[in-house]
Amino acid sequence: MKKGWLLALCAVLLIVGTGCGMFSDKEADADAEEKGPQVSKIEFGDYPRDEGNFEALNRRKHFGKDESFAMVFHMPKEQQFDTTRLKIQIINKDGDRVLQEMIQEVKPDENKYKWEFSNSYEFHGFYETGNYEMKVWRGEDLLAEGEFVITD
User: Fold this and answer.
1) Per-residue b or e along 53-87, where b marks 16 or more CB atoms closer than 10 Å to that residue's CB
2) Is 136 within 8 Å of 73 (Cβ atoms)?
3) Nearest to 103 by CA among 83, 87, 82, 126
4) How many other C-beta atoms are found inside a 10 Å radius of the C-beta of residue 112?
5) Rounded Cα gap, residues 108 and 125, in angstroms
6) Is 1.10.10.10 the CATH number for 38-151?
7) What is the DSSP letter of 84?
8) Is the dihedral of CA 51, 57, 59, 61 positive or negative?
9) What is the pTM (predicted TM-score) of this model?
10) What is the pLDDT of residues 19-78, one digit of tens each?
11) Spans of all domains in the chain
12) Rounded to 5 degrees, what angle do the CA atoms 90, 93, 99 make?
């Protein structure tokens, strides 16, 4: 008789535990979905002139005021942009304010991007000495971010 009650109690606990998600990873899966896409790291350095090269040359994070440089990033796990436009923000970390926002056209099936900064006249206060952060957005999803420094 005791074995019957014990067996019934175990069965009830198993059914209740399964129903409330005690024995599943649904909560972990939901947390991963809420976080959105994985954020890539932006690399800074010299612009790769070869059309098929998407690796920054002479990688570094410090640049002179009159120096041209490039940013490069790749989507994680060969994901695609799934959009025709990316928004790039340049943020002054010292004042925590957005200095510049640019919309760049991309192909939805691409998964990597490179861009050269070569003309300080196109940027509003960006080529001043200081600490900067760059963020790349697809709508509300942050795709990539990185930091760099402009020095004298």
Assistant:
1) ebebeeeeeebeeeeebbbbbbbeeeeebebeebe
2) yes
3) 87
4) 15
5) 31
6) no
7) S
8) negative
9) 0.72
10) 555 555 555 445 544 555 689 999 999 999 888 899 999 999 999 888 889 999 999 887
11) 2-34, 38-151
12) 35
